[in-house]
Amino acid sequence: MPEVPEVETLREFLDDHLVGKEIVRVLPLTINVLKTYDPPLTALEGATVSAIERHGKWLDIVAGESGLHLAVHLARAGWLRWKDEFPPAPPRPGKGPLALRTVLAEGDGFDLTEAGTTKRLAVHLVRDPFEVPAIAGLGPDPLDDAFDRDALAALLAGERRQLKGALRDQRLIAGIGNAYSDEILHTAKMSPFKPVHNLTEDEITVLYEAMRSTLNSAIERSRGVAAGRLKAEKKSGLKVHGRAGEECPVCGDTIRSVSFADSSLQYCPTCQTGGKPLADRTTSRFLK
Question: Which part of the chain is the FPG-type domain (predicted)?
Answer without folding.
Answer: 239-273
